[in-house]
Amino acid sequence: MIEVAGPIIGGLLQSFQSIHALTGEDARRLMPEPPQLDAWYPLPQFQSILQAVANKHQDIKGLVFRAGIEFIQSWHRHGPGRELIFSSFDFLHFQTNSQGYHSVVRAATPEENGFVQLDRLDKESGEAEASFVVPFPAAFSHGVFVGGMSIFDDLDFLDIQFEEEDCDIPGLNAHRLHIRFREKVNLPQGWSDQISLSTKGSHHQTRETLYWKYRGLQQKIAYERIYRDQLNDILIQTAEVLRFWSEGLRPFGSG
Length: 255
Known about the structure:
By secondary structure, the chain is of the alpha+beta class. It is 53% helix and 18% strand. The protein contains ten helices and seven strands. The protein has helices spanning 6-18, 24-30, 43-56, 61-78, 88-93, 99-102, 110-113, 138-148, 191-194, 201-253, and strands spanning 3-5, 40-42, 105-106, 115-122, 127-134, 155-165, 173-183. The chain has a four-stranded antiparallel β-sheet. Strands 2-1-3 form a three-stranded antiparallel β-sheet. A hairpin with a 7-residue loop joins strand 6 (155-165) and strand 7. The N and C termini lie far apart (59 Å).
């Protein structure tokens, strides 16, 4: 049986509760005892949380994406991650030979356990690729990598796209991430006064740096939109439920 580490369960519950996709009562029913960071839980525990959210909301990919971010940031903030990775490139290298994955997922056999593999990393071109055969949906893996490479604020630009692939191993999903990035460059002092129409020297470098920072900001907004659009749907549903109960209770307060 596949088991997952406590931070995965905790990150999932925390993410869904913080946006009211799950109520406190839902969480207590799913997990009578709060998840412990140093404990291991059977995979069906993870799946039951996803199913509980899916039963309430039609499309949960954006919510699962956010949960992946919450998990990896919790793993780094409160778990062993803070002693293992210190940069975005440390995070990528930690995926080599499934080091990161096997620190939070375990099973009786390698075939059952699956893997995460960094297939390519080219700092000069700003590109990397990673392949996954895991028990998680692609949106969760997507969130884990976006969150993991956003912790250290050492990139001006980050764009991660994923594609799902066929997998013939029962209980596991296959997908691939395509990663584009630009390392962070600090702008020179007084850079706003130095920019001219010239394309030579440091002025050109400053404009190029600004371009990638702008592209990075655009991509961050796009990632937030993945999550925010579904959050708005949840808030609308919550408001409708509150209005229904308010109207139902109104007669009792009219006397």
